[in-house]
């Protein structure tokens, strides 16, 4: 297989009717590492919305059980990508997502914003650091894939096009990004988790490198000291260099799903999708996704 052969195949597909298959090819074959990093950043930036960061701090899932929460989120989203919306594992993952969110009073606006990050951040990351840019087919397919996920989750007023998702994300961040003490604890715990994946002496360097990849609104919301211009330039050039190196490598012949990422540490003996995540809190309702169409 030649380096751009899979892209040529994607361009022959229908980005509306075959959206999830295109998304699977893009995320599991063409850009598995980039999608992992971009979706990490997508979820991370949602903490800067105080209503989201405060809730995550209150549940303690991302401060006391950070690795498990990271693993469960990645594995649940991964099951949908790998098995599709109609596959048994994909449907089970959607049920678990809805059960968990249904335990809390989360606004539709916050849910829609989180969905926007899943659409927008991979494109932005790959434009900055990927070995090639996403094609229009891939952008449309990703948008359709997450529109379908949003409908399964009962989210209302979902944007239609990528451009509408991007405008929604930018407007929401401009209006809502801000300081919250609990959100800062969640952010610190997440940065500590990422550093823990590597030898301890590297922790300060890894934290500085991660901060160098964050934009100014995020740094300001969490009140982090901005990295120096030299640090930021060095880190970003290094990640771009990785993309140029990948371009020279042979194309991937087998898929790499998130469950194969070495950062997933919590299930050395395997897992069942139906048992991932947190258990619903009895008697606490109110999240709009709790009224989502039931997936049987």
TrEMBL record:
One of its GO terms (molecular function) is oxidoreductase activity. Pfam families: MPAB_Lcp_cat. InterPro entries: MPAB, MPAB/Lcp_cat_dom. Residues 43-241 form the ER-bound oxygenase mpaB/mpaB'/Rubber oxygenase catalytic domain. Transmembrane segments: none annotated. It comes from the Bacteria. This is Peptidase. It comes from Streptomyces albiflavescens. The lineage of its organism: Bacteria, Bacillati, Actinomycetota, Actinomycetes, Kitasatosporales.
């Amino acid at each position: 297989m030649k380096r751009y052969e899979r892209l040529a195949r994607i361009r022959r597909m229908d980005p509306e009717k075959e959206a999830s298959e295109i998304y699977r090819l893009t995320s599991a074959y063409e850009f598995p590492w980039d999608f992992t990093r971009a979706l990490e950043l997508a979820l991370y930036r949602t903490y800067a919305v105080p209503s989201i960061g405060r809730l995550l701090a209150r549940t303690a899932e991302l401060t006391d059980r950070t690795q498990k929460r990271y693993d469960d989120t990645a594995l649940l989203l991964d099951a949908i990508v790998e098995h599709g919306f109609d596959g048994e594992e994909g449907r089970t993952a959607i049920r678990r997502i809805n059960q968990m969110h249904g335990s809390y009073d989360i606004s539709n606006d916050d849910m829609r914003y989180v969905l926007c990050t899943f659409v927008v951040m991979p494109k932005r990351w790959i434009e900055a650091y990927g070995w090639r840019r996403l094609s229009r087919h891939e952008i449309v397919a990703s948008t359709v894939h997450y529109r379908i996920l949003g409908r399964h989750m009962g989210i209302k007023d979902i944007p239609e096009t990528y451009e509408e998702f991007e405008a929604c994300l930018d407007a929401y961040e401009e209006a809502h990004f801000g300081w919250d003490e609990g959100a800062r604890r969640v952010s610190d715990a997440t940065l500590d988790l990422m550093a823990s994946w590597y030898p301890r002496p590297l922790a300060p360097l890894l934290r500085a490198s991660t901060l160098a990849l964050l934009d100014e609104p995020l740094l300001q919301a969490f009140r982090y000291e901005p990295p120096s211009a030299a640090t930021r330039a060095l880190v970003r050039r290094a990640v771009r260099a990785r993309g140029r190196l990948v371009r020279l490598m042979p194309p991937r012949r087998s898929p790499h799903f998130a469950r194969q990422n070495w950062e997933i540490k919590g299930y050395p003996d395997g897992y069942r999708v139906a048992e991932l995540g947190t258990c619903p809190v009895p008697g606490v309702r109110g999240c709009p996704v709790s009224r989502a169409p039931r997936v049987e």
